[in-house]
Amino acid sequence: MNLFSRFSLVRVVTASTALMLTLALLTVSAAVYMIISARIADEAVARQDASLRVAATIVERDIPGTEVTWDADGNVQKIVMESIPTAFEQHDMIDTIGRMTGETATVFAWEEESRDFWRRTTNIIKPDGNRAVGTQLGQNGAVYPVLTAGKTFRGEAVILGTPYFTIYEPIYSPAGKIIGILYAGVEKSVITALAKDMTTALEIASLLVLVASVIGMALLSRSILRPIPQLTETAQRLADGDVELEVPHTEARNEIGGLARALEVFRENALAKAEIEREAEEARSMTESERQDRETSRREREERTNAAVTALGEGLRKLSAGDLAVQIDTPFMEGLDSLRTDFNASVEHLRKALSDVRDTSEAIEGGSAEMRSAIDELSRRTEQQAASLEETSAAIEEITATVTSAAERAREASSKVGATKTDTEASSQIVTDAVAAMGQIEKASSEIAKIIAVIDEIAFQTNLLALNAGVEAARAGEAGKGFAVVAQEVRELAQRSANAAKEIKELITKSTNEVSVGVELVNKTGEALRGISEKVIDVNENIQSIAKAASEQSTGLKEISVAITQLDEVTQRNAAMVEETNALTHRLGDDSTGLQTLVAKFSMGERTTQKMSAPAVRAAEGKTDKPVSSPARAMVGNVARAFGGNTALAANNDEWEDF
């Protein structure tokens, strides 16, 4: 207090305010810088994990023989691949990863001859405009020894002159040998740009707040405290005997006005004193005893008046030094004691006013602390909502791709069913032709049977003729022996012809029966083919309906994706407004703290303690929020069940863990 008493109140208050604001702004800037640094590190790790999850999922889908295992947090634990293609004719897979993550990705393959990893496919573009395919990782960097030891590398790396936050995940063969690397990288400038912008904005805002606060406090202090030095000077001049001056600020209605009116009473009393001295001078002609009595009375009155002026001046000096506990306990002479009581009452009122200001500033600080806590919680919830929207958007994109693929497959199936229908109709015609051919065969068999019957009849007649010839040769006697032998041979020949005709007839009858059975079977086959053709037509119509519905679903999902993107933009704007409100509440709390510090400079004759208000205590306790579950999980699961067999949606749901 002795140090501050060397300077005016306006300068002390202004300088103290500037110092406290500077310290507060430096502290807040340091805290914000530390928070931003931590956020940058966390954001880099989170984006690395997210990019690696997307890259691993798409690699597992597009490269046969790939299997990815996941840990409990939904991150990639191990990648096993039967083999890595020696060359990629198309780079659609790696470009898809780049579009979904917005970052860089590369697939490396191990080469035994060079004992190094070589880029097989990548979306990193060299300065000449070509992809960086066919370039090696290099054995001299920090990545090579970590990966050859079978560990995952995380850290900063410079690729083609651009710094990245990178993650390199080794790819194993089924035998456990490292055969490649899956790389995902996030540009460092993308993550640090926000921190630079926030730091610059914070420095500018802090400087503006400091300048505005110092100027405002200087003007406010000058306006409030300027009358006190004037009244102090007036009291000093009254003490020196200058009673002709005019006491300023007597028209004010606050404690300063009361003090000015008290000084005005002092001035009037001084004038009365001068009048008494004048009257004393005129009474010199009175008797010595009366003169001595009056002199004694005058001296006593003078001493009491001087004592009152001195006590009041001392009180004013203490008051100008900020001591609000000053009280004048010694009673003044009659007629002046009202000055003492008015002075004490004015100081008491001023002390109560500053005490109320202090209590109000504490209440403001408590309320601002509670507001900060609520706004911090709202900020966290807004960030969680933004993360959920990001996951939902990614899931909608996956679903849209799956539905589009399903529609394409449905169209392919419809085309194949149409071809099957054509083949079935052709087969049905073939069966009809076969039935007609069987009928012709059956008809020919009937004609052959008739011919065989004629042959059998001829053989029978020949046998009778040969028998008659034998009888006639026997009648002829010796002359007909030769003819009898011929007749016997003809008869045997006719018998063999009849036997052969009989066997042929039996074979033809059996063939006719078999042909009939074949005709019946061919007819049944024709009927079955006609039924298959009808069912194929029904299947074709159903598949066309499925393809049409899948196309409509794809269009609807695209509209949903656009709506979710707009909702994400609104959420980001809400988050920015929450950050601005949070900054304002912090500034309000700092201003209330500075006001308490200024009030504490005044001594009020009581023990002042800094107590945290109930709202501030509640705000300081902190709250832990349970992460909001992502709606993308249920959506992806439903689509995976609806389109079973699509590896793009058969991934483990753990990869959609909340941030």
Number of helices: 11
Q: Which parts are unreliable, with pLDDT below 50 for 5 consecutive residues or more?
A: 607-628, 645-659
Shape: rod-shaped
Report the biggest beta sheet as strand number plus sense, adding barrel if it closes. 7 strands, mixed
Give the total of beta strands. 7
Spatial gap, N to C terminus: 54 Å
User: Quick check: average pLDDT?
Assistant: 76
Query: What share of the residues does DSSP label as strand, in percent?
Result: 5-15%
Spatial extent as radius of gyration: 56 Å
Number of domains: 3
* CATH architecture level-2 label of the largest domain: Orthogonal Bundle
**Overall helicity:** 55-70%
CATH class term of the largest domain: Mainly Alpha
Topology as H/E string? HEEHEEHEEEHHHHHHHH
Q: The CATH topology of the largest domain is what? A: Helix Hairpins
CATH superfamily of the largest domain: Methyl-accepting chemotaxis protein
- Protein structure class: alpha+beta
